[in-house]
Automatic annotation (TrEMBL):
The protein's required cofactors: Mg(2+)
Descriptive protein name: Pyruvate, phosphate dikinase
Binding sites annotated in the UniProt record for substrate: 557, 613, 748, 769-772
Family designation: Belongs to the PEP-utilizing enzyme family.
All copies of domain PEP-utilising enzyme C-terminal, residue ranges: 514-873
Entry keyword set: ATP-binding, Kinase, Magnesium, Metal-binding, Nucleotide-binding, Pyruvate, Transferase
Coiled coil (residue ranges): none
Length: 875
């Protein structure tokens, strides 16, 4: 098929064939903008070049020659002509923008003869030889593979010998001399000399562009960014516009709006009498575009009007490369401009106000991860120096503090007013006071749903976990990775967005909410179908989440309430109780604590549902580890009293008795509640007592009690019976009527999903616990898989994503769809939602919308993102 398209034959829709740059040049040409004419060799031509073992086919050479002929006619110039030479630029242009590919060759078509023609034609030999020396250096670098510094050194030597500092002060004979020297560099440093045959120049340049698709930088970039290897790159060949033709020529780059604030004003830089690379090369300092407004008002006005035209055409902020040749403006490239989060929101809102976009279109353009940037602290990237290690980006935000390996020390330092980073091989509920006291958490083991990750996310604290290259020596008070050792007390900085662990105290950027964000969130709420709830375990988090727009609590993990330092001992006493009486008295102490927690949350969520999950984790999580106890016992010989020894031994006995080989598949969730009914009874009593108190005070309470880890309907019907019984007993007739409580279940065991019909008959709602459901559907341990093999799977593209982060819609999603359909068939009023970590992930939220679920529930700081994503799913 056709392998070469003139710019006027293409359009923006042909991006796959013409590459991003080619499609844009075509589109601009079509829109009547001043683009120097040219043509594009297609990505398909690139692929067949590789199929033919890396040689240009005769057919392609012929088509290129034909396109060149037409270009010659338009320009009234001829390629290789000594009197009116046509010069072109050659650029790569892949479908996705890709650093690492061959960039640009300018002034191609010059040789010892045509350079004289150009000099005569323009009456400007200095300009002609300036072009020629640039061509040889660029060609030498990107086609012949000679390192750029060889050319730069020569140029510097030349300027020294001439006694000038700036390129523009080099006279014509200087450039002529440099041309000779550059040719000599090519001849001596590569296998072939700089070609004098202009067609050979062109063919070699095309081959270099094609070849750069497979250079190692491009390959690495594609792997990281998941760009397929079989797209190929296009080649753009464009007649030159010369910014280096004199003081009324120049070149520059502009954004149509300010990319860091969003302000609707041209932003960018330019240089007069300069070509391409000079703007970025830093040899001369470019001027800001606002200076042009004063100095070249005519040009500025032209640029401003072109900018407006391009924004209208593309309906987005543009990043434009332009050249001015003897006073005439040309556009060399335009693309949607990159912008930071703040600018993105302002631009979206103003585009709607200017009538360029509808609200829905603006909403669709919001990148939810941008909101993460805005609502969390970030790093001042310029200040980042030594990256010690990279782990999983488990909880967003950035934090700096002094390193400790011990939760007690963290709490101590925090009390003394020091910012702390807590680093542990992994965290357990025993460390919770340390997590609470620290600015951020770092672990060397455990995945995105590990204890540290979940707890930190809930608290809105940054967390990097599963950082396996770190060797933490807690006893020795050091931590080592990539040969760098840091000690307890040293400053480190965590970036929860990228997973980086950085040595030193890196300055942070504060989060910001803006009027624009609130406006966009308002639009989102109007279109979304999914309700957005939050996962919160205490009144403070509930308040934060409500301020972010949460429509209730979708998951309160009650175990988190027992982790506070004053509560853990009571919980432990309850677990360790040898007699029923001892257990009961511990539970009696826990009851008022739970009741006040629940009351606090009901009050914060006045008028909105609060879903309380009964205790879920295995009991051993509340006790110290056996290894820890053994160590303490061993140390006890040197000093502890007999009483302390007895206590430790008893504790160790209990820990061993509770030991399970697979605790995640063990006595947890409703299994625990069924075997130790008094624990759930205490929680249920606390809930209804809190309900009664709130009702007295006129608070609109909507309690929803949730049973974890149900796999068989009998588990649910048994526990539901107890809940209904206790509600009647504790509330009395009148309050029972006033309080429309619900009882539902988590669906997180595959068997529950498969038997959803039976289960739904006893449930008011299904809440899909996609963390456990993913664990049990794949059979991947949520605590170990990521560090051990999962990241390897993702790197090797065996799995498209980490399924603990992005819902596996094919497998786990199928269970969700099946269970919610079956459940609704039996119980049409069944409420359904997701409360695993996926509830805050964009593509998982899209799935929930499509599956027709009623809500998602996510950590407080993700609520705004979820509102936007839910709206995008509905548009
Ligand atoms: C889940 O399993 O998805 C869930 C929300 O419960 P947890 O993470 O507490 O096990
Ligand atoms: Mg679970």
């Amino acid at each position: 098929g056709k392998q070469v398209y003139a710019f006027h034959e293409g359009s923006a829709k042909m991006k796959a064939l013409l590459g991003g740059k080619g499609a844009n040049l075509a589109e601009m040409t079509r829109a009547g903008l001043p683009v120097p004419p040219g043509f594009t060799i297609t990505t398909e031509a690139c692929l067949s070049y590789f199929e033919q073992g890396g040689s240009l086919s005769e057919a392609l050479k012929q088509e290129t020659a034909d396109a060149l002929k037409k270009l010659e006619l338009v320009k009234s110039q001829q390629f290789g002509s000594p009197t009116a030479p046509l010069l072109v630029s050659v650029r790569s242009g892949s479908v996705a923008s890709m650093p690492g590919m061959m960039d640009t060759i300018l002034n191609l078509g010059l040789n010892d003869e045509t350079v004289m023609g150009l000099a005569a034609l323009t009456g400007n030999p200095r300009f002609a030889y300036d072009c020629y020396r640039r061509l040889i250096a660029m060609f030498g670098n990107v086609v012949l593979g000679i390192e750029g510094h060889h050319f730069e050194q020569r140029l510097n030597k030349l300027k020294n010998s001439l006694g000038v500092r700036l390129d523009q002060d080099v006279p014509d004979y200087g450039w002529q001399r440099l041309v000779g020297e550059f040719k000599a560099i090519c001849a001596s440093r590569s296998e072939r000399a700089f070609p004098q045959d202009v067609h050979e120049q062109l063919h070699m340049a095309i081959e270099a562009v094609f070849g750069s698709w497979n250079n190692s930088r491009a390959q690495i970039y594609r792997r990281i960014n998941r760009i397929p290897d079989d797209q190929g790159t296009a080649v753009n060949i464009q007649s030159m516009a010369f910014g280096n033709r004199g003081t009324d020529s120049g070149t520059g780059v502009i954004f149509t709006r300010n990319p860091s604030t969003g302000e609707a004003r041209l932003y960018g830089e330019y240089l007069m009498n300069a070509q391409g690379e000079d703007v970025v090369a830093g040899v001369r300092t470019p001027l800001s575009i606002s200076a042009m407004e004063g100095e070249q008002p005519g040009l500025y006005a032209q640029l401003a009007s072109v900018a407006q035209q391009l924004e209208r055409h593309y309906r987005d902020m543009q990043d434009i490369e332009f050249t001015v040749e003897t006073g005439k403006l040309y556009l060399l490239q335009t693309r949607n401009g990159k912008r930071n989060a703040k600018a993105a929101l302002r631009i979206a809102v103003e585009f709607v106000r200017e009538g360029l976009l509808t609200r829905n279109e603006a909403l669709e353009r919001i990148e939810p991860s941008h909101l993460d940037q805005l609502l969390h602290r970030g790093l001042d990237e310029q200040a980042v120096q030594a990256v010690l290690a990279v782990g999983l980006p488990a909880s967003l935000g950035a934090a700096a503090g002094q390193l400790t390996f011990d939760a007690d020390t963290a709490a101590q330092w925090h009390r003394e007013g020091l910012p702390v980073i807590l680093a542990r091989p992994e965290t357990t509920p025993e460390d919770i006071h340390g997590v609470l006291a620290s600015e951020g958490v770092l672990t060397s083991r455990g995945g995105m749903t590990s204890h540290a990750a979940v707890v930190a996310r809930g608290m809105g604290k940054p967390c990097v976990c599963g950082c396996e290259s770190l060797r933490i020596d807690a006893k020795g008070g050091t931590m080592e990775a990539s040969g760098i050792v840091v000690r307890e007390g040293d400053w480190i900085t965590l970036d929860g967005a990228s997973g980086r662990v950085i040595v030193g105290n890196v300055p942070l950027r504060e989060p910001e909410t803006s009027a624009e964000l609130l406006e966009i969130l308002g639009w989102a709420d109007e279109v979304r179908k999914l309700r957005v709830m939050t996962n919160a375990d205490n009144p403070h988090d509930a308040r934060v989440a409500r301020a972010f727009g949460a429509e209730g609590i979708g998951l309160c993990r009650t175990e988190h309430m027992f982790f506070a330092p004053d509560r853990l001992p009571v919980m432990q006493a309850m677990i360790l109780a040898e007699t029923d009486a001892a257990r009961r008295s511990a539970l009696e102490l826990l009851l008022p604590m739970q009741q006040s927690d629940f009351e606090g949350m009901f009050r914060e969520m006045d008028g909105l549902p609060v879903t309380i999950r009964l205790l879920d984790p295995p009991l051993h999580e509340f006790l110290p580890s056996a290894a820890d106890l053994q160590q303490r016992l061993a140390g006890a010989a040197s000093g502890q009293s007999a009483g302390e020894r007895r206590e430790l031994t008893a504790l160790l006995r209990k820990v061993n008795a509770l030991h399970e080989s697979n605790p995640m598949l063990g006595q947890r969730g409703c299994r625990l509640g069924i075997v130790f009914p008094e624990i759930y009874d205490m929680q249920i009593e606390a809930i209804f007592r809190a309900v009664a108190e709130c009702l007295e005070d006129g608070v609109a309470v909507l309690p929803e009690i949730m049973i974890p880890l149900v796999g068989h309907v009998n588990e649910l019907s048994f526990l539901r019976g107890r809940i209904d019984g206790m509600a009647a007993q504790l509330l009395g007739e009148e309050k029972l009527k006033a309080c429309r409580y619900k009882v539902g279940t988590m669906i997180e065991v595959p068997r529950a999903a498969l038997t959803a019909r039976q289960i739904a008959a006893h449930a008011d709602f299904f809440s899909f616990g996609t963390n456990d459901l993913t664990q049990m559907t794949f059979g991947y341990s949520r605590d170990d898989a990521e560090g051990k093999f999962l990241s390897h799977y993702v790197d090797q593209k065996l799995l498209p994503e980490n399924p603990f982060q992005v819902l596996d819609t094919e497998g786990v999603g199928q269970l969700i769809e099946l269970a919610s359909a079956a459940g609704r068939a039996v119980n049409p009023r069944l409420k359904t939602g997701v409360c695993g970590e996926h509830g805050g992930d964009k593509s998982s939220i899209f799935f929930c919308h499509q599956a027709g679920l009623d809500y998602v529930s996510c950590s407080p700081y993700r609520v705004p993102l979820a509102r936007i994503a839910a709206a995008q799913a509905a548009i």
